[in-house]
Amino acid sequence: MSTEDKSDAQKNITKWASTDGHFRRQVSSFRDVIEKGGKFEPEKGRYHIFVSYACPWAHRVLITRKLLNLEDVIGLSVVSPRMGALGWPFAAADEFPGADHDPIQNSNHVRDLYFKSDPEYSGRFTVPIVWDTKTSTIVRQQRKLGNYPFS
Q1: d(CA 116, CA 55)
Q2: pLDDT tens per residue, range 57-90
């Protein structure tokens, strides 16, 4: 099955606003934590963040990454700010200036990462997401980077 057929919920990807016009962020499906002794151990170079500069929640993650000096610890890729019917595209699908190609999975859209993590995923394909390069899965998809214990 192609990612184009995966989710009927995604057919109306641009209709996520409530009746009052406000975007309502869904409850995150991926909410794991990076911690010593946990499922996702802190490790330099293991994690990668995918963001869009058009997403205010991603700004919070970018600021936290900078303030905690994690720029050399956690990788970063920026998707195009033009979210279409298939969600946030990488440069492979939209050569928007400043958009990156997916250096980890070579995906065309953020949705591809969600389906790689969970082939039955039926929620929204949001950013920011923290990706584990070791297990090829999404660790978390929240607006908080968290207090990751990188040494």
Answers
A1: 22
A2: 888 889 989 998 999 999 999 999 998 888 899 9
Instruction: Please list the active-site residues.
Output: 55
Say what the pTM is. 0.79
Max CA separation in the chain (angstroms): 46
Answer yes or no: are the C-beta atoms of 99 and 79 closer than 8 Å.
yes
Per CATH, is 31-151 categorized as 3.40.50.261? no
How many whole angstroms separate alpha carbon 127 and alpha carbon 129? 5
CA dist 128 and 141 (Å) reads: 6
What is the CA 146 to chain-centroid distance, rounded?
A: 15
Q: Are strands 47-52 and 75-79 parallel, antiparallel or unpaired?
A: parallel
The residue written with tokens 């939209």 in the block is 94
Q: In the chain, where are the structural domains located?
A: 31-151
d(CA 5, CA 85) in angstroms, rounded, equals 12
Q: How many C-alpha atoms does 91 have within 13 Å on its Cβ side?
A: 10
pLDDT digits (tens, 9 = 90+) for 86-127: 889 999 999 999 999 999 999 999 999 999 999 998 888 889
Cis before 42 (ω within 30): no
